[in-house]
């Protein structure tokens, strides 16, 4: 299906392309694309020839991820705001005419504290980004993909090792990541009639800024109260895995991938 081009300057959004290649690329949306896993995934998809709309709160990191590439499209978006998310996917549909893939990646680590130390405001903010934001993006992507029946599309949610086993003092983050697993399974079930598949990648200890925040390299807090230096692995390996999942034929789907650094204290934490 030929891609549809929108107004290059509509609402101030940068249009880095004058025309698409004769053979139109597959179309992806990646949230949280300004740093960490999202940035690495965006580079992997662009290297593979996908057209990618990069979403995140701040334009500057998104522009840095885009690197001026012809098929990189930058659109600042706060995924916790329904109007922002609706505008993001309307922009994608107007510009490209379709959507093949969504990587629901944007998230926050949330407050560090025992359950009685987390304020309602901190809890609500974490849920709004990690869970409601993923729901909003999935819903908008689903609406576009339904129109593409029987071609459908694919959604991959970025869960976490915390979807299986929490770190201490992480009730808000852990609760949202457990909930994302339920969202993934529900999307997969609801999408069957439309050729829409959904999977989840649960990643542990990539070498990103988040791991610095958790103190993984200096000694991460363990369940027994001790601190332990934990191994990490290159974020590019996680990105390659997401790309592999995305490029499976429509007849195949990976429901859940658990990917950790070798030797990470995941099984048998604490």
From TrEMBL:
UniProt xrefs under CDD domains: SDR_c (cd05233)
Record's keyword terms, sorted: Oxidoreductase
Pfam families, per the entry: adh_short (PF00106)
Oxidoreductase is among the record's keywords: yes
Source species, domain of life: Bacteria
Family designation: Belongs to the short-chain dehydrogenases/reductases (SDR) family.
Protein name as catalogued: SDR family oxidoreductase
Organism: Arthrobacter parietis
Upper taxonomic lineage: Bacteria, Bacillati, Actinomycetota, Actinomycetes, Micrococcales
